[in-house]
Design brief:
- Helix content is about 0%, strand content about 50%.
- The chain has about 120 residues and is mainly beta.
- Strands 2, 4, 5, 6, 9, 10 and 11 form a 7-stranded mixed beta sheet that branches.
- Strand 9 and strand 10 form a beta hairpin.
- The radius of gyration is 13 Å and the shape is globular.
Length: about 120
């Protein structure tokens, strides 16, 4: 069982920045692929970015060049740095962990953190 706790959401202006954090329990964090998903009202939950235990990253086209995913295996934490935010980035952001190198399939989820981009 892995527990994930997200933090760092809030309100930002268009063009602004936020950094999300996701702290994971357990001692084998480095063997988990970690991902950030987001879900806007009335829409499906979509993958934003993922990172493998050895640092290979993948991004959705809508955020590439603006968002950066990173992880600190010593702190069991994954981050999502969000720059040049747009109103369409408004959503609940969820952290996911899964053993192995693919983020797809069943895994563990955090409770979500709200990100609102508005002037």
């Amino acid at each position: 069982q892995v527990q994930l706790v997200e933090s760092g959401g809030g309100l930002a202006q268009p063009g602004g920045s936020l950094r999300l954090s996701c702290a994971a329990s357990g001692s084998i964090f480095r063997f988990y692929v970690m991902g950030w998903y987001r879900q806007a009202p009335g829409k499906q939950r979509d993958l934003v970015a993922s990172i493998t235990g050895d640092g290979n990253t993948n991004y959705a086209g809508s955020v590439e060049g603006r968002f950066t995913i990173s992880r600190d295996n010593a702190k069991n934490t994954v981050y999502l740095q969000m720059d040049s935010l747009k109103p369409e980035d408004t959503a609940v952001y969820y952290c996911k962990s899964r053993i192995g190198s693919s983020i797809y399939g069943s895994g563990y989820w955090g409770q979500g953190t709200q990100v609102t981009v508005s002037s």
